[in-house]
Design a protein that fits this description.
By secondary structure, this protein is an alpha/beta fold.
């Protein structure tokens, strides 16, 4: 059995930063993730996606952020159990917990932090004729390797941040990029929407608004996309790849059976310290919800910092918390 102070469920960016904040307070961490690699959604879904809202980095790609976080927490020597889903959580008489995974790995810990992003997730698929027939043959729901699309004709669909960001990025990679959106305005960041508009005005991408993709076709690989415009008229465009980016459908999985307060597939927390309704269990990052919640990585970092201050008092109730600034003492001082 693995013994640690805090068991962190989820090895994405917020879970990783929690290790740093916990390490400053001399708390040991062990992370569990159902994915086979560290990095959560950043590494699994869009490792090369540019991220623009990390303080101090005008732009940084997702995998680079994960790599930097790993370097940051290296001094604290966290443990990892990867490729195993947490199945069971049992509270002990001394208020500690035993976490059991799908492979029967057991972690005995004093506190549990749920940092599982969207939990178990799957892409939301649009109602497009023959869509599933071309999965892996020209239809992709995420961009793992942008080089796959170099000098290809790409059609993206969606109106959120992912659709905007990948349109901007692939404009310099693909032979032709077309973004199809059913609305007139975008849900993503205004700055990204403005950049996409400029790309369209300069002729670098095709932007098709108030339209839907209704059908795709091809032989052994996707070759054509059918689009229905606002006037109801349908027309075809050539495409080597279609990338529908309509977000992910979250599912809490076994976590939903732990007695936590859940609202719309998210865990309700107290913003004082991001604790749940069960003492000793915290939830941070995209998996939690509270009034004013913003699903941003930097907000998850803030939540991790406050959570660790509270978790220290739960893990070490007889010790006095003496927090120091890393800018004064340096990490090695802790």
């Amino acid at each position: 059995m693995i013994t640690t102070d805090i068991c962190i469920i989820g090895a994405g960016p917020v879970g990783l930063f929690s290790v740093f904040e916990a390490g400053l307070l001399k708390m040991r961490c062990h992370l569990v993730d159902a994915l086979p690699q560290i990095g959560g959604q950043l590494s699994e879904i869009y490792p090369q996606k540019p991220i623009y809202d990390i303080p101090g980095y005008p732009t940084i790609n997702a995998q680079e952020l994960v790599d930097n976080l790993l370097k940051q927490i290296e001094p604290f020597n966290p443990g990892f159990t990867l490729g195993e889903r947490v199945e069971k959580l049992e509270r002990q008489e001394d208020k500690s917990f035993i976490v059991t995974t799908s492979d029967d790995t057991q972690i005995h810990c004093k506190a549990v932090v749920i940092a599982g992003g969207l939990g178990c997730f799957e892409p939301r698929k649009p109602a497009v004729e023959h869509l599933e027939d071309f999965e892996g043959k020209g239809v992709a729901y995420m961009v793992r390797n942008p080089e796959l699309f170099r000098d290809k004709e790409i059609v993206l669909a969606g109106g959120g941040d992912s659709a905007l960001d990948w349109t901007i990025f692939l404009a310099d990679v693909a032979k032709k990029v077309t973004l199809v959106h059913r609305g007139e305005t975008f849900r993503g960041a205004p700055d990204s929407a403005e950049k996409v508009a400029h790309l369209a005005e300069s002729g670098k991408i095709n932007l098709i608004l108030k339209s839907n993709i209704t059908k795709i076709s091809g032989e052994s690989h996707l070759s054509e996309v059918t689009i229905a415009g606002a006037d109801g008229a349908a027309y075809n465009i050539n495409a080597d790849y279609l990338i529908p980016l309509f977000g992910l459908s979250p599912k809490l999985g076994p976590i939903a059976d732990w007695g936590l307060n859940v609202e719309k597939s998210a865990i309700v927390v107290n913003t004082f310290d991001y604790s749940t309704n069960i003492e000793g269990i915290y939830a941070i990052g995209d998996i939690n919800t509270y009034p004013g919640k913003l699903k941003l990585i930097l907000c998850g970092f803030h939540e991790a910092a406050l959570m660790c201050q509270s978790a220290f008092k739960y893990v070490f109730p007889d010790q006095r918390l003496s927090f120091k600034y890393t800018t004064v003492n340096g990490v090695n001082a802790f």
